[in-house]
Amino acid sequence: xxxxxxxxxxxxxxxxxxxxxxxxxxxxxxxxxxxxxxxxxxxxxxxxxxxxxxxxxxxxxxxxxxxxxxxxxxxxxxxxxxxxxxxxxxxxxxxxxxxxxxxxxxxxxxxxxxxxxxxxxxxxxxxxxxxxxxxxxxxxxxxxxxxxxxxxxxxxxxxxxxxxxxxxxxxxxxxxxxxxxxxxxxxxxxxxxxxxxxxxxxxxxxxxxxxxxxxxxxxxxxxxxxxxxxxxxxxxxxxxxxxxxxxxxxxxxxxxxxxxxxxxxxxxx
Length: 269
Ligand code: HEM
Known about the structure:
It is built from 13 helices and no strands. It has about 270 residues and is mostly helical.
C-alpha cells in the first residue's frame, strides 16, 4: 500500500509553540549530528537513511518484494543469529555461578537447579537455545541449498557458512562436558577417542606414525590436555566454549553478513 508521507508529516494541528520548539531542536547541531538525513519522506532520503545509519547499513538500500516474503528465506539466518545472541547473554550470566573445577562443576549445576532464583530457567534457556541453534542453522543451510543461493557469486559465503556450522557443533560439544555429569563425561570420552583416529595427527590414525605422533602429542592430547578426561579437559572445554569459539564465531558472522551485503541477497533479484 502506498503511504502518503506528506500527509503523515502534516503537523499543522500542533500549536505553533510546540512547532517552534520542535523546529529549533531539529536545527541544533546535536540533533543534526545524530539524525543526519531528516524525515525520510522521499526515496533518496530513505536510501540515505539506510546508508548512513550504523544499524540499517547492514541491510541493502532496496530489496525486491520476492525476497521480503517469509516463504523465501524463512528468516532462518536471522533466527540463528538471534539464538547466538541469546546464548551469549545467558552464557555470560551462567559464568557468574559456574566454576570449571572437577569437585565443583556438577554441584554448581545442582545449585543452579535448586538454589539460584530462576537458575533452572537460565540454564534451560541456554540448553534449549543451543539445541535450537543447531536446528535452525541446518534449516538455514537447507534453505540456501534449496534456493540455489550457494551458486556464484555466493560460493565463498557458503564456505564461511560451513565453518560457522562446524563452530556451532564444536560449541555444543564443548558445552556438553561442562555439567561434569555422566552423560557429558562419556560423550566427550567417545568424541575425543574418535579424534585419535584422525589421519596424520591422531596417534591411531593412518600415516601418523611416520610423523612421530604418539599418544602424548596427538590431537586428542591437545584437546583434553592429557591421555584421559580429567580437570585439564574440563578447563580446556570451558575456555574454548566461553572464549575461543564464540570469538571465532563472531568474527565469521561479521564476515558472513558483510558478504551477504556485498554479494547481494539472492532474494532481491
Ligand atoms: C551461525 C550461523 C549462521 C548465521 C547466524 C547465518 C546468518 C545468515 C543471515 C542473517 C543471512 C541473510 C538472510 C538469510 O538468508 O536468512 C545469511 C545468508 C547466507 N548464508 Fe548464513 N548463517 C549461518 C550459517 C550458514 C551456513 C551453515 C551456511 C551454509 C553452509 C550459510 C550460507 C549462507 C549463504 C550462501 C547466504 C546467502 C544467501 C542468499 O543470498 O540467499 N550460512 N546467513
